[in-house]
Design brief:
The structure is a single chain. The chain is of the alpha+beta class. It has four domains: 183 residues, no CATH class; 157 residues, Alpha-Beta Plaits, CATH 3.30.70; 176 residues, no CATH class; 153 residues, no CATH class. Helix content is 61%, strand content 7%. It contains 26 helices and 13 strands. Strands 1, 2, 9, 10 and 11 form a five-stranded antiparallel sheet that branches. A four-stranded antiparallel sheet has the order 4-7-3-8, sandwiched between helices. Strand 9 and strand 10 form a beta hairpin. Helix 10 packs across helix 14 and helix 16 packs antiparallel against helix 23.
Length: 851
Amino acid sequence: MGSIFRSEEMCLTQLILQVEAGYCCIAELGELGLVQFRDLNMTVNNFQRRYVSEVRRCEGMERILRFLECEMQNDEIIIHNPEKPPQTPLPREMIDLETGLEKLEGELQEVNRNQQTLKQNFLELTELKHLLKKTQDFFEAEANLPDDFFNEDTSSLLELRTVPTAAAAGKLGFTAGVIGRERMASFERLLWRVCRGNIYVKYSELDTTLEDPVTKEEVKKNVFIIFYQGDQLKQKIKKICEGFKATVYPCPESASERRDMAADVNVRIEDLNSVITQTESHRQRVLLEAAKNLGSWNVKVKKMKAVYHVLNLCNIDVTQQCVIAEIWCPVPDKERIKKALQLGMERSGSTIPPILTNIPTNLVPPTFNRTNKFTAGFQNIVDAYGVGNYREMNPTPYTIITFPFLFAVMFGDCGHGLVMLGFAAWMVMNEKQLLATKTDNEIWNTFFGGRYLIFMMSIFSIYTGFIYNDCFAKSFNIFGSSWRVRPMFTNGTWTDTLVHSGIDLQLDPRVTGVFSGNPYPFGIDPIWNIAKNKLTFLNSYKMKMSVVLGITQMVFGVIVGLINHINFRNRMNIVLQFIPEIIFILCLFGYLVFMIIFKWCTYNAFNSQDAPSILIHFINMFLFNYNDPTNPPLYEHQKEVQSFLVIFALIAVPWMLLIKPFVLRANHKKAQHRLPPSSAPEVHVEISDMENSQSNHTKEEKKEDHGAVQGGGHGGGHGEHGEEFDFGDIFVHQAIHTIEYCLGCISNTASYLRLWALSLAHAQLSEVLWTMVMHAGLSSASWGGLIGVFIIFAAFAVLTIAILLVMEGLSAFLHALRLHWVEFQNKFYSGTGYIFSPFSFQRMLDGTADE
């Protein structure tokens, strides 16, 4: 884990493989996941690369697998994922896998087609069955005669009963069919208008819900009978039925024929049911057999496709015998990479060992910080701001401590911390089961990915909650309060009469007695929880604490920047950047911290009324005003010390601003005189490199410094393009850095006061919630209050989780994030690199690999 403090050392390596061994060697590198391939065919179209046909075949197999998965999901068949991912299949195994999948797809498609045809026939027969029944019922109701009477055509009888005026004109005809229930109203209206009312329509709703064999959705339909006279109306009705997608069935006119036809339909339906059941059983067997291997097939196809994609990034030499690749890899893992290549060579049956050769290059190496499941969440926080430059100091190891601590300073509450700890501990203890249950819920994935971050934040919150002596707006009286009542009240004791009298009682820390005069052993004295001036006391305490913590973290950031300068052997930045920066911040803001701590150590309960104001002292320090009779000095010779510090801090400003540009200019001129004119561009490169090795506090400087760092601490953005030295440009950049740093020390210190503000806001919200909800339920002494306290506690719990844990927790998290990104990391961290994205099967299967 040594690389967690600084990114891994990377090297660009040329890899030469035999064509026959290329596939297996790249597959072993994918299993290892420590190699990033460079695209050597940037000018070649994706469709013109060597292995594009193999990639298309893999995509065809992926399509088949998606089809199978969709069928299994529709039938609610469980897909078995392999416990251990299978090995990448050999190229010759690809043909067998492809053939098997195509055969399985063809068989399943044929079964689906047959099943759909059978279901369509079943639907039509079912509709015909209901149509015959409804038609028979209709004729019987209209004729009002027994069934044995219908030996002759019933249409003439219907003529006489329903349309008596048409009896002389000729025989009536009728059309029967089935239509969707939602179309019935418009269907009937159009028939009436087109036929001018010369028809008689009767319809009835089907009691059973039918299933569409194509969409597999339930549909509701109506049976209709249309009586008409003449062929012209018959043709019109036929066209309208076609337009409304109504199914017209032949219906015999005689009752006996209808009964015979209904019996035949029932027999056919029974036969179809038997065939459909057998077909569905066969389909289920096919899918269940495929479900056992579907997960393994998915992994194999993805691995094959990934290997062929990587092969498309490589070159083939002119003899068509060697695969040439260029890879970025961590230097400490070279031996593991060689072993993986050896395994790939043995698996392919090749006898020619792979060749690894380091390539000298000016390319910018990727940034690779090793992480585990604990540090990954913290590293993601840092990378969200920007990926660090190559070999730049990594803020992650410090963020592991400072981020949860600053969060806890704003969120400090024992009770809320315990609830958060329970949630984090549940995710940590069940992480294997939760990992296996993959979900697309982004909010849950965010919480689960930061489970160790939440765990650390909860532990620190419990600690700061004990410091603040705050648990759900209540205090713990563990050691007994160090405060005592003034002697003037009933001999130093509180009585019930005195307490209920409503007068304000004064506590005096100077009263002698047990614990009196001594501070509370750990945290804040519990008596402050009921004091009226509680907010005044906590304001002062938390404000000064925020300033101390903020300045300490900023000074540490400047010191980490020194480690960067030492690592890149940039002596100029050490002398002309780090030293004036540390002088400026320590002389002014470091001295402010000294005064706060000195005042805490010097003044106590007996002389606190004589303590001077630190804020007035700090303002007078800049004004050189030491004749304020209302604010006595903190210590002897304070005037001399403060004058020296202010003058020294003012000296550091031109030190940062002026010296470095003139030194760069002098070095540039010296180099021009030393080298011949033909080498002038190289001189410009060198001087420009020195220029670009300066601060990384502005965006422009970040980009230039990125080039310098990635090139080993010397190469820069200007130098790569051969730009000439521009003194005005250098001076402007240095002026921007100086102004930003000096003003940033002030604004960043003020920004840390958010620790004070959010801590007070959280405590006050917690107290308001307790007073307005729980206190109201607990204050009732009746039986109703006893029952209502359960309801009130439920409301209290919901509001606590929703407001104080979720909303306030998210607020504190975002503010802690800002403090690290802006106030801390800008002292040493550029964040303009690009991340190391190795070719890894594991990342690909987890869904974390880059496209």
